Amino acid sequence: MHKATFLSAALTSLLLGACASTAPQSSTAAAVSVDVPTVAHPAGETPQWWYRDGAARAAGNGAMAGKAKNVILFLGDGMSLTTVAAARILEGQRHGSSGEENLLSWERFPATAFSKTYNTDSQTPDSAGTMTAITTGVKTHMGAIGVSAGTRSDCSDSLSKGLLTWLQLADSAGLATGIVSTARLTHATPAATYAHSPERNWENDTDLPEAAKAAGCVDIAQQLLSTSRYGKGPLVALGGGRGQFTTVNEEDPEYADKVGLRLDGRNLVAEWQAAHPQGAYVWNADQLKAAANAPALLGLFEPDHMQYEQDRPKDRGGEPSLAELTRAAIANLSKHQDGYVLMVEGARIDHANHSGNAARALGDTIAMSDAVKAAVEATSADDTLIIVTADHSHTLNFVGYPARGNPILGKVKDKGGEDGAGKLDLARDGLGLPYTTLSYANGPGYTGASNQQPAGPKKFPHGPSSFEPAVGRPDLTHVDTEHPDYMQEALVPAKAESHGGEDVGIWARGPGSKAVRGTMEQNTIYHLIVQATPRLRARLCELGTCDAQGVPVELPQPRQFERKAP
Q1: How many CB atoms lie within 10 A of CB 470?
Q2: What are phi and psi of 521, to 5 degrees?
Q3: Are 140 and 500 in contact (CB under 8 A)?
Q4: Helix ranges restricted to H, 29-74
Q5: Mapping DSSP to helix (H, G, I), strand (E, B) and coil, where does residue 422 land?
Q6: Which of 74, 178, 274, 397 could be 388's S-S partner, Cβ–Cβ 3.0 to 4.6 Å?
């Protein structure tokens, strides 16, 4: 080696070594140590312990160094890592590439981590308990909305267990707040940003048992309006669920054969309009565009959940995409100079996975990628923290040895399996039959006969109540497995496919995002947000929940954050 070359190589080596040695220090330079008591698991896991434990992890990762003015949390409901990988490939293939090299919008973010999703009472969680962990900093039981762990059906038990959500905290701190979802706005994920209920299914007054009403619980739809006690309430609320807000005597504006669900005589849409006389209520895409300058915005685009992205173009009323909802929300909230927080849920990823229909699950994941891209384009990484994550996983499998570029929704074609010694052809199982790259461990795609469809491949939608044992596997040679209505085979028969219990991803960019790393408990996400946002942190400290280092470590009491009566 020439002397000059040697010196150059040595200098490069020293510089790289210096970078390698200083990089971890720079990412943890703002780390703050918080003591957490050792407890017996799970018996010692109190709400206060969960809160302090999450605060300690976020502070130890350096979240206190964040200077975010705005926060946007994207929640892909049921968006397992397998769902992300398959959607990434499908999007790439739709654009004419082989697909594997593609990245969804958030996969370009600089910070990544894993989230442990279990509930306090279940290894494999549900959306209510998981989203409550994300919004309150406290893990809780399956089915819980904004309350700490207790008995799911016991209203009285829950009344003293309400938790302050970061949406309510932001409202109390003078930030603008917003909620966007493709589910009903009263469904588990959006509800966990503003409501308090031990049972996620108490969405309207007809769902609420008489005993719960007598004990003092109110339905979730009502709570969307009453959460304004913390400030102004959500200035943007866009999603589905018109039926939860209107009465049985009111005809739906889009479907003449449908009416509302409420029996208490309360039209909550009208009540919202009375509380926001300059605001706009909309139920279709054209109205949403026309309401661009409204100071407050309520959009209910379906009586139930919004359409899957696959079916949205056929919606009779004209339904906006998740990206369009996101743009509208950011345009409204960004008018507020003090900053904002926004939650955006790609809800129907979960529903399609439950239905055993990968095409719609992946399609809605791609739609959420478009929404994240829209948010990136509408904001700056200098002042806006964007976090993308999921609440839980699903049982979607990505299997076999398909050749590079093989259609992700297609049948596996390989060159002789792992050995790769043959020519490209359909892969065969032990019975000599072809199989698809994607399948489910359980669900309605089971190929035995059901009370709704005959034996063989199943077609979406399929929600059976009984099955007969399958006799072998169907021959898929001439079946179009890439059709949007094809349902992937499931090993175990079930009316609905179940959630999975493995970790999900967290991706982040913007102020405070460097703290997003490693494997963390899901409730830590709340603490990452509040610690990285000075106004949220200051509001918590103002009411005495912070330690001497300024870290919010004490469980906040919701009533303290409500507006004072004039």
Answers
A1: 17
A2: -65, 145
A3: no
A4: 47-60
A5: coil
A6: 74
156: three-class secondary structure by DSSP: helix
Q: Cα–Cα distance between 322 and 286 in angstroms, integer?
A: 15
Q: pLDDT tens for residues 342-393?
A: 999 999 999 999 999 999 999 999 999 999 999 999 999 999 999 999 999 9
Is-catalytic flag, 127?
yes
Q: Look up residue 314 and give its two tokens.
A: 């056929």
Question: Which is the catalytic residue, given 127, 321, 369, 393?
Answer: 127
**CB distance 528 to 516 below 8 Å:** yes
Q: Please tell me the distance from the alpha carbon of residue 148 to that of residue 151, in angstroms, as a whole number.
A: 10
Phi, psi of 421 (to 5 degrees): -100, -5
Rounded CA-CA distance 86/102 in Å is: 10
Residue type (1 letter), 198: P
Distance CA 475, CA 307 (A): 32
Distance between CA 355 and CA 76 in Å, rounded? Answer: 16
Tokens of 72: 């946007």
Q: Which residues pair with 240 in a beta bridge?
A: 184
Q: How far apart are CA 198 and CA 210, in angstroms?
A: 15
CA dihedral 491, 495, 501, 502 (to 10 degrees): 50
Asked if 309 contacts 321 with a C-beta cutoff of 8 angstroms, the reply is yes
> pLDDT, tens digit, for every residue of 141-198?
999 999 999 999 999 999 999 999 999 999 999 999 999 999 999 999 999 999 999 9
Residues counted in the chain: 566
As given in the structure block, the two tokens for residue 90 are 């499908």
State which H helix or E strand residue 323 sits in. helix 322-333
Residue 410 contacts residue 381 (beta carbons within 8 Å): no
pTM of the model: 0.94
Rounded Cα distance between 443 and 395, Å, is 9
Cα-based angle 217, 172, 223 (whole degrees, multiple of 5): 25
Per DSSP, the residues of 228-267 read GGGSS--SEEEEE-GGGTSBTTSB-SS-TT-B--BSS---
